[in-house]
Amino acid sequence: MALYITDECINCDVCEPECPNGAISQGEEIYVIDPLLCTECVGHYETSQCVDVCPVDCILLDPNYAETQDQLMLKYQHLVKQSA
């Protein structure tokens, strides 16, 4: 699944630089995660880096983008090929 940021976000700026896929950006009011770029850090790290650093635990699994670990790995591989 992709991740999303809830409205409890305090705009602390710690999640954005941690995302290896560039999926996190500043939205109109809070940070947002592009579900097409989010792989939950599959392919890069063992755990989701944004979740690990979030001081208010406002980054959750997005039920609108259900993906298996295999699907996340395929998305990661596709993103790597596009950036090469």
From TrEMBL:
This is Ferredoxin. It comes from the Bacteria. GO terms for molecular function: 4 iron, 4 sulfur cluster binding; metal ion binding. One of its GO terms (cellular component) is cytoplasm. Keywords: 4Fe-4S, Electron transport, Iron, Iron-sulfur, Metal-binding, Repeat, Transport. Residues 1-29, 31-64 form the 4Fe-4S ferredoxin-type domain. The keyword Signal does not apply.
